Amino acid sequence: MLRVLSQALLSIVFILSALPVSADSTRVGDLVIDSPWARASIGMSRPAAAYMTIRNEGTVSDALLAVSTPLSGMAEVHATSTKNGVMSMGPAGPVEIQGGGNVLLAPGGLHIMMMKLKKALIKGKTVEITLSFKRSGKITVTAPIYGPGATRPG
Ligand SMILES: [Cu+2]
Known about the structure:
mainly beta; Immunoglobulin-like; 11-stranded mixed sheet; binds copper (II) ion
C-alpha cells in the first residue's frame, strides 16, 4: 500500500515538473523565454536577427543587459525607430522587463542583432543565444532558424 502510494506521488511530482513551460520555453529565475527564433542570414556579410518573448512572472523588474552567440563575433539588442519616415536601428541599452510584464522582440521592433558572423545562419538549423540578465543571470536558448523572409515563428 505504502509502496503504491509513494509511486503515485512520484509520478505526480514528475508530471508537475514537466508541466510549467512548453517545449519552446526556457525558464531562468522568474523569467520565461518563449518561442525564440532567428532568420536565416544572407550569407555572412550581412548581420542576422533573432526574436523571442521574455516574460517576467515575478514581482521585481529585471533587465536584459547583453546577448551573445557562438555564431557571431558581436551581438547586441537593437531598438528600431522611425524618424521622418526613415527606419533606423541601434543598441537598445538595458531592456527592462517589469514584474508581471513581458517584452516582445519581433521584426520591426526590438531584436537581437548578430554582427560579424562567423558562420551563416541556415534555414532548418538552430542557433544558441545566451542572454544575460541583471537579476536572473545567464540563460542559453536554442532558436530554430527560419527562412530569410520569415516574419514570425513557425
Ligand atoms: Cu539591428
